[in-house]
Amino acid sequence: MALRLLLSLAGVAVVTYTAHNLIPVNATTVGFAYLVLVLLIASTWGFVESALASVAATLSFNFFFLPPVGTLTIADPQNWVALFSFLTTSLIASRLSTEAKRQALDAIERQQDVERLYTFSRAILLIDTGEPFAKQLAVKLAELFQLSAAVLYERRTGEFFRAGPSDFEGLDDQLRDAALHGTSFSDAQRNRTMTAVRLGSEPIASLALQGPRMPDSVLLGIANLVAIGLERARAQELAQQIEAAQQSEQLRTTLIDAMSHEFKTPLTSIMAATTSLLSVPDQPLDTRMELLRIADEEAVHLRDLINDAVEMARLDTANIEVNLERSNLGELVGDVIASMHKEIDGRPIEVACDGKQPAIAVDQRLVKLAIKQLLDNALKYSAPGTPVTVQIRDGDGMMTVDVTNQGKGIPPAEQARVFERLYRSPSVKKQMPGSGLGLSIAHGIARAHNGDLTVTSRPGETTFRLILPTEHKGEQG
Predict the structure, then answer these.
(1) Domain layout of the chain by residue ranges
(2) Once rounded to an integer, what is the mean pLDDT over residues 30-36?
(3) Could you tell me which of 433, 443, 298, 454 has the C-alpha nearest to residue 366?
(4) Which one, out of 20, 126, 312, 446, has a CA that is 20 to 30 A from the CA of 329?
(5) Has domain 252-317 been given CATH number 1.10.287.130?
(6) Rounded CA gap, 408 and 383, in Å?
(7) Which is nearest to 390 in space by CA: 457, 305, 329?
(8) CA 384 to CA 378: how far, in whole Å?
């Protein structure tokens, strides 16, 4: 302030010296020069500096330019009028200029506040679900409004969420009270403000802020946006819970339907064999042994179906853990084909391998399950007389198992969704039984091995490719 006052006086001195010694001009021109100087000082610094410059300019104008020159007396009464008019004009002009500057600064601050509120509202929409929503709200608030500390207390959860380089001490009880009763307070000395966050008329949270002072309208806007953000987060949480419950119910119903359909065939065969034995107990030994063999085979088949159903349900609801051991993919494919002789039912299955296959680290049980799902899918969605091809390849650090069928193909729009949980194509949903889980689980097994499962399809040919790395971190012997 002192420096600006000195510079203002120096400006008056410069104008006086120039007009009196260097470029002699009449009194009217000098008066306008002083007036311009006062306006410049007012628009640059403020009213105090411009008022001082006005007084100094008036005295200099009187002393150096109004007769009698060299004294502060004025001989002509008209010059008194001119002198006071000049002083009044200078003060009013400087005051108006200062007020205009203040209003311009206020407008800039209001615009900045509006921009920050807008940015904050957009940030609320873009917040991810990786961290607690309220915590991210507090962090965004501290960043955008340059706060040294921000604390958000959420009444529903009873948690405090803090952000900013500093922290509040001893305000927890006041924040709880604000969230419960809607109270607020302000501490100007510490630049602290606390306010309730309301949804309608009901307090749902409270905010404590420390940093640059902000208008009440901005503080109210922040509180309203926080309330909207918290309610949005709660709505999303409820929606996710509802969706999870619906999917769990759909999964349960789907598994029951799938198991009911799959279990009927072996149960029918077992019951037919046992009924024949019970109804005609004195059948020839060969006949009884054949019936017992059928019952035994179908019981094993039923056991495998139950194990697969339980495994599929477990894999679909939990993280897939792999127990790695060195295995040959060709042998695993052979084991799967042998276990599916009932489903294959004489269909031609062509298996091709590129040379000697190296042993790779995989979870044998899981990889067999994935291959079985791919083969079962190929058999279901291709004509009974057409072959299914299994091609095993090794290259670029990856082993691949291609399962190809000659079915109708998968429409391009559906290829990106075939690995989604419970998804089934509308075109086959009512024609072919299934759970919509097989490909999803096979995809999860591939990912659990750091591999992948892809599909390429066109009318008359569909290939699912299971990709497994030849080297796996954390191998187990």
Answers:
(1) 2-106, 129-240, 252-317, 325-469
(2) 80
(3) 443
(4) 312
(5) yes
(6) 9
(7) 329
(8) 11
Query: Is the CB of residue 398 less than 8 Å from the CB of residue 452?
Result: no
Give yes or no for a contact between 454 and 438, defined as CB atoms under 8 angstroms apart.
no
pLDDT exceeds cutoff 70 at 249: no
Q: How many residues does the chain have?
A: 477
Angle in degrees, CA 240, 242, 248, rounded to 5: 100
- Which residues 6+ apart lie within 8 Å of 52 measured at CB? 5, 8, 9
pLDDT at residue 318 is higher than 70: no
Please choose, from the candidates 388, 402, 380, 396, the residue with its C-alpha nearest in 3D space to the C-alpha of residue 329.
402
DSSP 292-330: HHHHHHHHHHHHHHHHHHHHHHHHHHSPPP---EEE-HH
Q: What is the chain's mean pLDDT, rounded?
A: 79
Give burial (CB, 10 Å; 0-12/13-18/19+) of 385: exposed
Q: How many CA atoms lie within 13 A of 276 on its CB side?
A: 15
How is residue 383 written in tokens?
Answer: 């004509």
Contact (CB, 8 A) for 466 and 371: yes
Residues 325-469, CATH architecture: 2-Layer Sandwich (3.30)
Residue 199 C-beta-side C-alpha neighbours within 13 Å? 14
Residues 442, 329, 407: CA angle, nearest 5 degrees: 50
Convert 126-136 to b/e letters by CB count within 10 Å (16 or more is b). ebeeeeebbbb
Per-residue burial over 196-234, b = 16 or more CB atoms within 10 Å of its CB, e = otherwise: bbbeeeebbbbbbbbbeebeeebbebbbebbbebbeebb
Tokens linked to 340: 């599916």
For residues 226, 232, 237, 243, the Cα torsion angle rounded to the nearest 10 degrees is -170
- For the beta carbon of residue 182, count every other beta carbon within 10 angstroms: 15
CATH class belonging to 129-240: alpha beta
What pTM did the predictor assign? 0.45
Q: DSSP string spanning 366-407?
A: HHHHHHHHHHHHHHHTS-TTS-EEEEEEEETTEEEEEEEE-S
Q: How many other CB atoms are there within 10 angstroms of residue 419's CB atom?
A: 19
Structure tokens at 171: 């305000």
**How far apart are the C-alpha atoms of 382 and 325, rounded to whole Å?**
34
Q: Which positions ≥6 away from 425 have C-beta within 8 Å? A: 410, 411, 414, 418
Is residue 139 a contact partner of residue 130, using CB atoms and an 8 Å limit? Answer: no
What's residue 400's pLDDT? 92
